[in-house]
Design brief:
17% strand, globular, binds magnesium ion, Rossmann fold, 197 residues, binds adenosine-5'-triphosphate
């Protein structure tokens, strides 16, 4: 018997923003989950090569600050994929968590964009058997057709924002206030992130 239900919102979090946090908070309350973890990818293999990814420790620090800024005890950041090391595959992360926390059932939260790409994830056969997904709407992406994948949908307030948008705004010296918590803004500024594009 499972005693806890935990949602995992995996991502690059480069940087985290209110779109991530609204998704985490709404899924946590809608499904009455004990916890939602922002799972920071160590090496986001699907994104590598396309641009410079901020080092994992920095993205973890920002995700931790963002989770704390929610002031909801159930929203936390997770360093599990940094501890596992190497390229981050949700199938491996889930298997590790299921061993470490056998009494917890895990739900994998994805935005509509990520849900549309599930077939490109690592070891889809094993993932299909072991994972249960929660799909949230995201502006600009149609509801995914993910027949064959165990999933449910949670409707959240639409936030038309991405980390790419924020990186571009910082590069263009535009304000990012209210798009990410002040603690994350401070980290970006102190570390001089995203200034060079
Ligand atoms: P990037 O622009 O760098 O791809 P991103 O904003 O898409 O960044 P990710 O770290 O790639 O953020 O996304 C992590 C997860 O959060 C994904 O499942 C994604 O669909 C979801 N997500 C991100 N932003 C939103 C949003 N505004 N609304 C709903 N879901 C979101
Ligand atoms: Mg993305």
């Amino acid at each position: 018997m499972y005693s806890r239900r935990v949602g995992l919102l995996g991502g690059t979090f480069d940087p985290p923003h209110i779109g991530h946090l609204v998704a985490a908070i709404h899924v946590q309350t809608s499904l009455e989950l004990d916890e939602v973890r922002l799972v920071v990818a160590n090496h986001p293999w699907q994104k590598e090569g396309s641009r410079e990814i901020t080092e994992a420790e920095q993205r973890l620090a920002m995700a931790t600050a963002a989770a704390e800024a929610c002031e909801v005890e159930a929203i936390v950041a997770s360093d599990i994929e940094l501890r596992i090391g190497g390229p981050s595959y949700m199938v491996n992360t889930l298997e590790r968590l299921q061993v470490d926390e056998p009494h917890t059932s895990f739900l994998t939260i994805v935005g509509a964009d990520a849900a549309n790409d599930l077939d490109t994830w690592h070891k889809t056969d094993r993932l299909k058997e072991s994972a249960e997904f929660v799909v949230v709407n995201r502006p600009g992406y149609s509801a995914p057709d993910i027949e064959g994948w165990a999933h449910q949908t949670v409707e959240i307030p639409a936030i038309d924002l991405s980390s790419s948008d924020i990186r571009k705004m910082v590069f263009e010296q535009k304000p990012i206030s209210f798009l990410t918590p002040p603690q994350v803004m401070q980290h970006i500024e102190a570390q001089g992130l995203y200034r060079l594009g």
